Amino acid sequence: MARTCCWGGLTLLILLLHCSVFITQQLPTVSAQVDSELGDAANLLKQATDIIKTKNYGDALGYLNDAIEADPKLSEAYRHRAYVLRHLCRYEESDLNYKKFLELKPGTVVAEKELSQLVQAQNALNLAFNSFESGDIDKALEYIDKVVLVFSPGCSKAKLLKVKLLLAKNDYSSAISETGYILKENENNLDALLLRGRAYYYLSDHDVALRHFQKGLRSDPEHVELKKTYFGLKNLLKKTKSAEDNVEKGKLRLAVEDFKAALALDPSHTAHNVHLHLGLCKVLVKLGRGKDAVNSCSEALDIDGELIEALTQRGEAKLLIEDWEGAVDDLKNAGQRSPQDMHIREALMRAEKSLKLSKRKDWYKILGVSRTSSVAEIKRAYKKLALQWHPDKNVDNREEAEAQFREIAAAYEVLGDEDKRVRYDRGEDIEDMGMGGGGGGGFNPFGAGGQQYTFHFEGGGFPGGFGFNF
User: Where do the TPR repeats start and stop (predicted)?
Assistant: First the structure.
């Protein structure tokens, strides 16, 4: 019995010694693990801060997440993560991290200042979007440039909104530059590819625009906006090509319809539409549709007032509608810009001649006959009008009758003479030819001082053998 107790005590002693050794061996291992984790957290934080300097915020965020996981009480990791999240305009997450840091390090002035900047940037971004939607483009740009991208330079939402604002201002070159920076960070950013493609599109650099749309669609074939813009451009190019082909084939009426269809696709695409308007104007001039041609060329000139060909074509169109002064103005303007162009010079000569002719008396109209009337028809018309406006038959309105009779006599003086009529039809200067013509120094059938006289026409009296005694 005594031996049994002795052995039992010895066994217990051996067990206690083993436990003591085990505990002694394990304690340093646990302490080393804790020290290692703390060291890893500090190392991860250092790597993150180095990456932040390169503005590679995405990678920095990964290291900061790992550092906080390794040491949840590493205050600087929260502050740096808040800073990175603010730069990426992930404002709600950033706010939480700043508040966590201030819990661990209350009263830290730098963190409080950065938190204030976060609030400013967040408010400015919201105001920028609101201004954009309301059409206040300049105000929206001001919020983006002066606040959001100052405190959140890595904010992709702000960068993309800025590009949209630049497109709205028709500042396509700047939009291309801004999207270039975005695509350097991520060459497959679909929004940036879409916006950059649109900038090239509105500069009428369609091949480059198509390449951007195609690259985006390779990444996401079902992207709604990329598909819509890509196929819209393809359709525009197809309609434009069809119009040009029909012009070459002489199918002018079909060309008119194609030009109109192309213009209807995107009225805001002025860089391309200016050429569509000009093409349509030229076809309408060929078809003799002067009024429509003037409108089309005017549309082209509203876009580009320096377009010489549009001025020339509008001048030609105005000749068709007998707007002689307008034609001269347009063709003179075009000629001054291109003095060596013989076509413009010839068109201007025609316009000036037509203008001059328009200002002289239209003897045919006065006699009420056409330009193809025979001599006999002219004489009959003259006889009828002369009898109608005989002053003795118009006692109550003698002044008007005398004026009308002068016009009638002058018209017959020119049109009743074959040589004078030919020269008149050619547009020669014969203003003093005829009887009176409304100007000074002409023939006066009523004499001077109201004296009576006998009015005889060449060939012996009034046509048909009548003589008038006044």
Answer: 190-223
